[in-house]
Amino acid sequence: MFNFDQRIELQNKSNDLFMAGEILIDMISADYTDDFTCRTYHRFFGGSPSNIAMNAKKLGIQTVVASAVGEDGLGSFLINELKTAGINADCIQRVTDGPTSMVVVTKSQSTPTPIFYRGADYHLSYTVELEEALLNSKIVHFSCWPLSRGTARDTIEKIISKARMNKLLICFDPNYHPMLWENGVDGAGYVKTTIGKVDIVKPSEDDAERLFGKHTHEQYLEMFLGLGVKLVILTLGKDGAIVSNGMETARFNTLATEVADTTGAGDAFWSGFYAAIVKGHTIRHALAMGFAVSAYKLKSIGAIVDLPKLEFIQEMYGL
Amino acid sequence: MFNFDQRIELQNKSNDLFMAGEILIDMISADYTDDFTCRTYHRFFGGSPSNIAMNAKKLGIQTVVASAVGEDGLGSFLINELKTAGINADCIQRVTDGPTSMVVVTKSQSTPTPIFYRGADYHLSYTVELEEALLNSKIVHFSCWPLSRGTARDTIEKIISKARMNKLLICFDPNYHPMLWENGVDGAGYVKTTIGKVDIVKPSEDDAERLFGKHTHEQYLEMFLGLGVKLVILTLGKDGAIVSNGMETARFNTLATEVADTTGAGDAFWSGFYAAIVKGHTIRHALAMGFAVSAYKLKSIGAIVDLPKLEFIQEMYGL
Q1: Which residues of A touch B72 (CB under 8 A)?
Q2: Is B42 exposed, middle or buried (0-12, 13-18, 19+ CB in 10 A)?
Q3: How far apart are CA B49 and CA B142, in angstroms?
């Protein structure tokens, strides 16, 4: 049970966050188009766990990213970006099985339809170096992306098992999307099983609907908790979030006053929440800090913005 | 035996060229960089057989492209480009097995290293529609790309077999590159077997070296002919080409006077050669016309340039 007014006890380890999963290229159209008629694209550092790592580092906590890139120029670019940001890239594996993964997407006024180029990312292996870095960490985080295919799925299963044995805090972004999964695999079923093995999940309303069909917010909370997870953070976009630990359900309003770009708002939340948890804040306070960092991000364009230290944002939002 | 001073007898069919293989997105950096530090990329229509089809249509002959794209916006863009150019796109298959294939490459002063994102292209199936279009054609062309993987390889084998039975002219671009092939497959061996089943090949010196190791030009010609092909066009960049039918070997100088960009020069050659063959020119004359179209292309930047009708280029180069 995660009492909202208590801290989460973390182990005394040299690294704070261990992010497992995708690091990739976001190739984003320069103009707003819904149909890929746009001719010009810009290349960005991407992948949700990697973005969270970048943010968390800026907020002041230590992160390691475990992911796989190709033996190509885009892989070198990504590794270089991590290193420049001061993030440990020792667990970035270079594989010859495919190119550095990429998502091509058009800026859109409505909902953009990304095109996924899965390459190296799902060849992430469970290695000695990976295990060592994992066991030196307090928190492990992953999303649905590595679960959706091959070798990476087995690696995440081993990570979960090892992390449970060693009592790391295990957090999962159940951002389930059927498009990412191999044909014929029950992705939703697999994600539900995984939810039962972790401590904290942060589904969006869309994620919840893709997993369970259409229900009320309260029903979604019950459904996630029913799978065995200890804390559910159900995000509702501009309507904030509802969070439940099974005993208490709390509503959080958005702290955003100005919305320039919603890209990466979820990743910003995670990074603020983690930074606050690591720094010893209560769960209730860490959630508020997550929403504050998210609100700070929303004022700027891009997935990764120039975040200040957590303490600065805490003061700015009067928390 | 293809006598240089004779025409190639083609069957009386409604379509001239049947191009089988890749249609894809070329994502090319805006600036010259060798290491993918460039942030901006432009999206182009690409794939060698598809570029040849575009050129050949402009020169005045009928083409069909048989290829596979994903159920995505980039696939729709490619199909739309073909249709806008007046090319039959009935044999473009839309598959759910992967995204529209893409090649990301930086403009480079030296040799650029492309990154291949293979998706839909290698899922090209041999269908009733494909066979019908094939049997309505005079010439079939393919490159190494579809041979390098899975379903597309089987499809090309069936195309070759059907084309031989029905006496189409079969031409093959043996642009072998080990990077494209699955690990553990003897790509070079497979390409050599394929060369023995076709009428005409146009290797570059680099292709020849990748297939046979380092030898003289004359040895390369012998090696290709030894595999059973009837005509070998060995291109030598700025040094023109050497062509052999096994009995006569002829040297062709480049007709280029001005080189703005070498991208697509080989595809331009093929299209000029095909247009001239279809229009009843002798092999010797058709080769010269191919080099003329290539020289015309070299004056402009880009893989596909605004070619005039073949007769205009013929007059321009005094052929």
Answers
A1: 36, 113, 115
A2: middle
A3: 7
Q: Choose the closest CB to B35 out of A36, A76, A115.
A: A76
Residues 6+ apart with CB under 8 A from B207: B174, B175, B176
Is B303 a residue whose pLDDT tops 70?
A: yes
Rounded to the nearest 5°, which phi and psi values hold at A216? -80, 165
- Of B43, B73, B77, nearest to A41 by CB-CB distance is B43
Q: Tell me, what's the pLDDT at A109?
A: 67
Which of B28, B31, B43, B77 would best serve as a mutation to test chain A binding (most A beta carbons within 10 A)? B43
Say if residues A19 and A141 touch (Cβ distance below 8 Å): yes
Residue A75's alpha-carbon distances to A65, A125, B10, in angstroms, are: 14, 16, 49
Residues 197-256 of A with CB under 8 A from B: none
Q: What is the DSSP letter of B7?
A: B
Chain A CB contacts of B38 under 8 Å are 43
Contact B100, B25 (CB under 8 A): yes
Locate A202 and state its tokens. 């942060």
What residues have CB less than 8 Å from B25, skipping those under 6 apart?
Answer: B43, B44, B45, B46, B74, B77, B78, B100, B101, B102, B103
SS3 of residue B140 by DSSP: strand
What does the block give as tokens for A281?
């804040």
d(CA B121, CA B119): 6
pTM: 0.91
- Which B residues in the span 66-85 are in contact with A, Cβ-Cβ below 8 Å? 70, 72-74, 76-77
- Average confidence score pLDDT of chain B: 94
Contact (CB, 8 A) for B48 and B171: no
CB contact at 8 A, B116 and A72: no
**pLDDT computed for residue A35 by the predictor:** 78
Do the Cβ atoms of B36 and A117 come within 8 Å?
no
Confidence check: pLDDT of B110 > 80 = no
Chain A CA closest to residue B27: A41
Residues of chain A below pLDDT 50: none
Cα dihedral B211, B214, B218, B219, rounded to 10, equals -70
> Which residues in chain B have Cβ-Cβ distances shorter than 8 Å to A113?
72-73
A-chain residues near B113 (CB < 8 A): 72-73
CA angle, A167 as apex, A161 and A169 as ends, to 5°? 90
Q: List beta partners, residue A141.
A: A19, A171
Q: Tens of pLDDT along B39-51?
A: 999 999 999 999 9
ipTM associated with this complex:
0.88
Q: How confident is the model over B90-103, as a mean pLDDT?
A: 95
Q: Which two tokens stand for residue B128?
A: 């009733």
CA atoms within 13 A on the CB side of B306: 0
Residue-wise pLDDT for B249-285, tens only, equals 999 998 988 888 888 899 999 999 999 999 999 999 9
User: Please, which pLDDT band fits residue B111 given cuts at 50, 70 and 90?
Assistant: low
Token readout for B104 is 């990301």
**Burial of A190 from C-beta contacts in 10 A (0-12 / 13-18 / 19+):** middle
Kind and range of the H or E element at A314? helix A310-316
For B319, the token pair is 């052929």
Distance from CA of B302 to the nearest CA of A (A): 14
**CA dist., res. A136 & res. A133, Å (int):** 5
Per the CB < 8 Å rule, is B43 touching A42?
no
